Amino acid sequence: MVALRSKKGYICDMDGVIYHGNRLLDGVIPFVNWLKEEKKDFLFLTNSSERSPKELMQKLSRLGIEADETHFYTSALATAMFLQSQCPGGSAYVIGEAGLINALYDAGISMNDVNPDYVVIGETRSYNFEKIEKAVFLVSKGAKLIGTNPDLTGPTEKGIVPATRALMAPIELTTGKQAYYIGKPNPVIMRNAVRKLGYHSEDIAIIGDRMDTDIVAGIESGIDTVLVLSGVTTREGIEQFPYRPQYVFDNVGDIIKE
Question: Are 123 and 153 in contact (CB under 8 A)?
């Protein structure tokens, strides 16, 4: 515990760690207050591509937590940066929400539903057969398939809902093409997050609720791993994986309990 609390930087997942939908989870406010009081550097790193850092900042503010935009990094931003590096000035057909579309625009990627370089899929509530059909047609014509993150499900206050990989499945199955996923545990997003914090990996811990994204991302990046049981993974579910987190807590508040 002393080693964990002495870290200089913390990468913290959001869904299932900080909140479920619009419900703040237990222990979050004391934990964030501790980060500020101890002058720790922290980054909220989310695989969700729906919202921009400003929107996430405003959401946390409504829930009683104040943190400026610099404390947020999303799979949408990582996806936009990746496409910009791979195909500067390229174009994409996007199934996703404003956070993803705006990130792509800001990176110089234009929207194109005729002959795009990429088909990009992220979380969305406007998913329908017409969009699936269009994506399949464009991928079949040669557009590269990109997913903002590999999550199959996401936690809400009502229970789990389909996430990007579940929405991607019909397109992958129909075209026979496998998407490239940018979010955790991809080293692309992890390198960007570590760079934003400005510390070496041994000085950072990652806190998440998913063994298949957060924890494996930390292991593969050489970062200490903290699993909280307030989201997707249960204590019994840990045993289903061939790797283990270094720390397991019921919620983030337990990290600072004496």
Answer: no
